[in-house]
Amino acid sequence: MTRTEAIATINAQLACFDDERIMTVAEIVQDMSVPVAVPLRLSAEELAGIEQSKEDFKAGRTYSVDEARAISDAFLLSLKTKYPAAP
After folding, report:
1. Would you say 72 and 78 are in contact if contact means Cβ atoms under 8 Å apart?
2. At CA 62, angle to CA 47 and CA 50, rounded to 5?
3. What is the SS3 assignment for 31?
4. Is 25 exposed, middle or buried (CB count within 10 Å of its CB: 0-12, 13-18, 19+)?
5. pTM
6. Helix %, strand %, coil % of the chain (to 5)
7. C-alpha–C-alpha distance, residues 73 and 79, integer Å
8. Among the listed residues 30, 33, 32, 26, the one whose alpha carbon sits nearest the alpha carbon of residue 10
9. pLDDT confidence tier of residue 87, bands split at 50, 70 and 90
10. Sign of CA dihedral 9, 15, 20, 22
């Protein structure tokens, strides 16, 4: 669905809503327009990491879900081995 189609669908449905529903939709839209997150302040190293990841994606240097899971599992196992008393 395109933006134009979405707006048309919303407008078409609004005509069928009673006043209470219209007010609810208005409140939802107002709530959505309020910024909810504080802008992140990233270090130069973090920003460089983000740029590197963008380049990796463009170049196809990514892991499948199974590959990522295997890497994560191996890392967690190494931590459990290193710190056997940890919960």
Report:
1. no
2. 5
3. helix
4. middle
5. 0.40
6. 70, 0, 30
7. 10
8. 26
9. confident
10. positive
**DSSP 8-class letter at 84:** T
CA 50/CA 48 separation, integer angstroms: 5
- DSSP-derived letter for residue 42 is -
Q: Quick count: other Cβ atoms within 10 Å of Cβ 72?
A: 11
**32, 24 in Cβ contact below 8 A?**
no
Measured at the alpha carbon of residue 51, what is the angle toward residues 46 and 54, in degrees to the nearest 5? 130
Q: Answer for the pair 56, 62: CB distance below 8 angstroms, yes or no.
A: yes
pLDDT in tens, 29-44: 998 888 777 778 899 9
